[in-house]
Amino acid sequence: MSKISRLFKGGGSAAAKGRGAPSPQEALARLRETEEMLGKKQEYLETRIERELAAARLHGTRNKRAALQALKRKKRYEKQLSQIDGTLSTIEFQREALENSHTNTEVLKNMGYAAQAMKKVHENMDLNKIDDLMQDITEQQDVAQEISDAISNRAGFADEFDE
């Protein structure tokens, strides 16, 4: 089944229809396919516009009717091209919004995992025990400082000499 008929007839796999809403990856893939298809249509219309312009120049003043018909077709193609530009802009906006939503969902999910991990890490910790431990550490640091000060002071060698 062609891409266009899948888009307009709602084609696709039976599994996708039975599941309900598509996954973000599936929706992004379809939006990219649609962008690609519309891009190809843009290229086609641009070449058609160039051909009609060339045909209008070719007929010029010799065959005004053919030149006018070519210009009318060119104008019609330009209108279609303008509509495709608008559609592409809308699809691009929707794709970006979906990508951002998917990213936000993943970030939120990962933050939830981190919160659960932190909760698990902290479940074995008691604030009273931590406070006691910190006091013990402070006391031991004070003792170590006193020892360091005692060792670093001169052992009275300078006091023994009398000038």
UniProtKB/TrEMBL annotation:
Transmembrane portions of the chain: none
UniProt-annotated location(s): Cytoplasm, Cytosol; Late endosome membrane
Gene designation: Chmp4c
A Gene Ontology BP annotation from the UniProt entry: vesicle budding from membrane
Membrane topology: Peripheral membrane protein
Record's keyword annotation contains Zinc: no
Comp. bias regions, Low complexity: 14-24
GO cellular component: cytoplasmic side of plasma membrane; cytosol; ESCRT III complex; late endosome membrane; multivesicular body
Source organism per UniProt: Ceuthmochares aereus
Protein's name in the database: CHM4C protein
Family recorded in the similarity comment: Belongs to the SNF7 family.
Keywords, ordered alphabetically: Coiled coil, Cytoplasm, Endosome, Membrane, Protein transport, Transport
Domain of life (superkingdom): Eukaryota
Region Disordered, annotated ranges: 1-25
